[in-house]
Amino acid sequence: MAKTPNQPDTREWGFTPAAECLNGRLAMLGFAFAIVIEMLSGEGVLHFLNLV
Is 3 exposed, middle or buried (0-12, 13-18, 19+ CB in 10 A)? Predict the structure, then answer.
């Protein structure tokens, strides 16, 4: 879709507040999943994934 001269570009890239909010939420989910994996398996995430 072509951008017309009076239509601003609404896409933002980089460190925007929305991107940082999404990044924080994904980090919280990852940390929560790591705790759940550790509780259920009795070993750390790296051992659970056979990386150590």
Answer: exposed
